[in-house]
Amino acid sequence: MGRARALEIVLTGGLVDAATAERWGWVNRALPAAELDEYVEWVALAIASLPDGVRAAAIEAIDAADGALEDALRAENRLLGETFTPASGELARAALAAGVPTREVELNLEKVLRANLVRHS
Q1: Would the CA dihedral through 70, 74, 79, 85 be positive or negative?
Q2: What average pLDDT does the chain have?
């Protein structure tokens, strides 16, 4: 959320509904109550299933984006090299074998990669 929007919220004390908070970037996602538990469980399992070091590397790379672009790109490149494993190569090969350069597979890339992650766990 930008400075102007933050000032609007803080200085007016106005109430903001969930859909508006999501649109403004104040919250990550607004969901109906009936969907919340399932979504939270999915997020937790997705994060927990990441290979060793990936969570910390992702956080470090995102934090580096607050600095100079050149430094952020160097950090991202270094972190990618540190977290690329033989399993990463297998996932890349599986994605290519599934037809990753095609629009169909690109639109379902998450499912393709997750299916292969399960096989490598």
Answers
A1: positive
A2: 85
Express each pLDDT in 69-81 by its tens digit. Answer: 999 999 999 998 8
Q: Of 37, 42, 55, 93, nearest to 63 (Cα)?
A: 55
The DSSP 8-state label assigned to residue 52 in this structure reads: T
pLDDT number for residue 119:
55
Is residue 120 within 8 A of residue 92, CB to CB? The reply is: no
Structure letter (DSSP) for residue 1? -
8-state DSSP, 51:
P
Q: Which two tokens stand for residue 61?
A: 């790379």
* Tokens matching residue 16: 């903001």
